[in-house]
Design goal:
single chain, about 220 residues, mainly beta, outer membrane lipoprotein receptor (LolB), chain A, 3 helices, 12 strands, about 10% helix, about 45% strand, globular, LolA/LolB/LppX, lipoprotein
């Protein structure tokens, strides 16, 4: 479960360490990050469809999966790779479709390095960041922002974030891990203010016939 938390929330991370070690908070990068964060926090809710591509040079693997996540405040519902992860701020349900099994646990933010509802504010604490210039993505100009975690034990050592120059939206990001794996996330569709209710962020057992419930609370 934490694997999914990590890659979704990698939205903010690192630059080349040789540059970032002497840069705490680049004012130019901070201005762009603040505008991005403000854009998403102003929404009651939003839904993102994405593709994740894993590249593992050591294993000579390159594979992609698709998923989507709906976020509202500190609540989210993530669907990816045969799993659904639902968090209502107090309880987390992790449903494994193949096994027809759901695990229920208490939400403890202190146990989670990154969570989806923190992705647009994560840079405000525990990270250095630097502006990396402009690039083109899909014909659109994007700002490149790199963040480096202050915690040297963090297994994520670099993430490069692409933010639209036109509207401050996140277009993609690439996460680098110390084990050599690289994860690229591209947003394929963005839906602002989709209809959400309390049931959006709760697991309804009646909709999953014969589901096995493992309650860890």
């Amino acid at each position: 479960m934490k694997r999914f938390f990590s890659f979704l929330l990698a939205l903010l991370a690192v630059v080349q360490l040789t540059q970032a070690q002497n840069v705490q908070k680049d004012p130019q990068a901070e201005k762009i990050l603040d505008a991005m964060s403000k854009k998403y926090q102003a929404l009651n809710a939003f839904k993102v469809n994405f593709t994740q591509t894993l590249e593992s040079p050591s294993a000579k693997v390159k594979e992609s999966i698709s998923g989507d996540i709906t976020i509202s405040g500190n609540k989210y519902r993530l669907a990816v790779a045969g799993q659904e992860i639902i968090n209502n701020g107090a309880t987390i349900w992790t449903f494994m479709k193949k096994e027809n099994e759901v695990t229920v646990s208490d939400n403890d933010p202190d146990e989670q390095e990154m969570t989806p509802n923190q992705i647009y504010t994560l840079y405000k604490k525990g990270y250095r960041y630097v502006y990396g210039g402009e690039e083109k993505e899909g014909g659109e100009a994007v700002h490149v922002i790199d963040l480096t975690p202050n915690d040297r034990e963090n297994q994520i050592f670099k993430v490069r974030l692409h933010i639209s120059k036109k509207d401050n939206s996140i277009k993609s990001w690439k996460m680098f891990r110390k084990n050599g794996n690289r994860y690229t996330y591209k947003i394929t569709k963005f839906t602002p203010n989709p209809p959400v209710t309390a049931t959006t962020f709760a697991f309804d057992k009646s909709k999953y016939k014969g589901v096995k419930v493992v309650d860890l609370r």
